Amino acid sequence: MSLAEGYPNVIDVKYSEMVTMLRDFEPREFQNNLNVAFLRNITVEPLIPFFQYQCYANAIRTNIYTCDFDNIMQEVLDAKSSLYDHQPGVIFIFISLEQIAPDLCLRFPTLSSGEVTKHIENVVEHYALIIDAVRRHSEALIVFNNFEVNAFPSGGILDSQNGEGEGNSTRHLNSRLVSLIEQHHGVMLIDLALVSSRVGFLNYQNNMQWNMSKMPFSTLAMRHIAFEASKYITASEGHTKKCIVVDCDNTLWGGVVGEDGVDGIHLDQHHPGSFFLQFQRDLLNVKSQGVLLAICSKNNEADVLSVFENNPNMILKEEDFAARRINWNLKTENIKEIAEDLNLGLQHFVFIDDSEFEIEMVKDQLPEVASLLVPKNLSELRSVFQWKGFFDKLQETSIDSNRTELYRAENQRKSQLKSSATIDDYYQSLELVAQVESLNPSDVPRVAQLTQKTNQFNLTTIRYSEQEIEALRRATDSEVVTLKAEDRFGAYGLIGVAILACKHGKLEICSFLMSCRAIGRGLEEVLFTECIKWGKTKGASCVIGSFGLTPKNGQVENFFSEHGFNIEEKTPSITRYRSEIDLVQIVLPEYIRLN
Asked: How confident is the model at residue 4 (pLDDT cuts 50, 70, 90)?
């Protein structure tokens, strides 16, 4: 189950209902299980049910470990501590500034400029020591908090006039904490200053709870913090949405183009057209971050395209959309066709429409899709998806900014295929060029992203975090090999990854995967050849590979047997293969040129 299937957001659900749902969730409902740890010098126990519920609602079961109160350094320094026994995939660090730097919070007016700077550096160093200690024993994603700005500084209105006042000093501290992300791999920041501004300072803190139990947050703040924290879990488990499918009439613009005409629709700087302009800008912004846009509209296609061509106020252009279905067919069928065109699972889609009937039909027949109704109050349109965290991800990759262009190039390839006399003619016409190399540090985020989302051509479907990929890159007994390609229609980007290990004369193919965009063009042979070459340089005499069958990767079930491997061991969950390294059978396609 997921939020798209009806679980309310943790910010909206009643506490009694949440507790009931937590009790009634069944283990079989979860696609993922993840160990999570909380390190803290505050009381976090009341926060955890909100956090677990939001993760459960997104089909992720979290197994929680919480260190003893204010016992962080002892936990992270001890290699045999319960923290590391828990083997967390994500570690949250929640620290109260008042606990580690009380003078900054309680005696700020008495401090000199130098003393303020010293306290700030001590806080940054405190975090750095914790992170460094964790990294010696764990490759977990580390998420630590920054600090809310006091809305009532002791200096009153004069505080804001001083660049070194209490408010600006807290902001400076928060900016210094960002440097820790740049200096360490697999470290991120949960922005409590941002949460505080959303909730409002007066609604954020609970001074009674803080003095009684060292829990600083109000119940409303806990809901928002839990939701914010859950985004890191959702992103780490690959549940990020990848495509927004939008209606046109009364969604991209106001009015009905078939009745009002291109010039009669509402799309300008005046109410209500300004709301739709804002919405289009928001869509363009998420597109620039790698989210695909698609149109699904019951309309005459010529009318819709005329708006794109002839209405000067259109911010979005026809080329901003990776796919479109403008016809009178069922929207459920159109969305499924769009998913097939883009080669994406329905769980990665968000659908936005002004028709309650269409929304309810998609919810009923395509429950994996997150379906959102255009609000009656158009002032809420621009926030219809923004606050939900659908598109949050753990890293930016070089491919994100031009993802739509990649899909448009793929459509050109499909057209070329249809016009080719034979499949061999098609392959020859592509003019494929491949480049295989050891992992470049700048490509670590993209490699982690591929391992997390690739399902069809993925022999083991092992998911790796960015920090785990970085550790493999640095290790002396492992290698991460990447494949990039391009053809006459454009670049594919980084589309293939192999993770290798060599010990005791055995080359092990730990992971071998290809982006769906590259399937069926023989590029896997280029990548596999490089794997065998690396094994030989390490003195390997045999090759070991594994295949784990999933509902989506059946097409590569025979990959190893087709390359001359024999089954060494077979269990219900995995099949292990073995071949002498000199007997591996690889046929490199003649139409691929190596760079």
From this structure: very low
pLDDT (tens digit, 9 = 90+) per residue, 224-267? Answer: 999 999 999 998 887 889 999 999 999 999 999 999 999 999 99
Q: Rounded to whole angstroms, how far apart are CA atoms 364 and 332?
A: 10
Q: DSSP 3-state assignment of 415?
A: helix
Q: What is the DSSP-derived secondary structure letter of residue 268?
A: S
Question: What is the rounded distance in angstroms from the CA atom of residue 247 to the CA atom of residue 60?
Answer: 30
Distance CA 180, CA 174 (A): 10
* Amino acid symbol at 283: L
Contact (CB, 8 A) for 482 and 526? no
How distant, in Å, are the alpha carbons of 242, 262, 313 from that of 300? 27, 13, 20
Helix (H) or strand (E) holding 126: helix 113-135
DSSP string, 216-263: -B-HHHHHHHHHHHHHHHHHHTT----EEEE-SBTTTBBS-HHHH-TT
Residue 310 pLDDT exceeds 50: yes
Tokens of 57: 């609602």
CA distances to 276, 278, 383, 394 from 253, in Å: 5, 10, 16, 33
User: Residues in the chain, how many?
Assistant: 595
Q: Which amino acid is at 35?
A: N
**Mean pLDDT over the full length of the chain:** 93
Rounded CA-CA distance 582/595 in Å is 25
DSSP states along 137-177? T---EEEEE--PPPSS-TTGGGGGG-TTSHHHHHHHHHHHH
Q: What is the pLDDT of residues 74-109, one digit of tens each?
A: 999 999 999 999 999 999 999 999 999 999 999 999
The CA distances from residue 294 to 223, 288, 291, 297, 412, in Å, are: 32, 14, 10, 10, 17
Crossing angle (nearest 10°) for helices 113-135 and 166-183: 30
C-alpha to C-alpha distance for 50 and 225, rounded to whole angstroms: 9
Nearest by Cα to 595 from 481, 482, 429, 484: 484
- The tokens describing 350, both together, are 């968000």
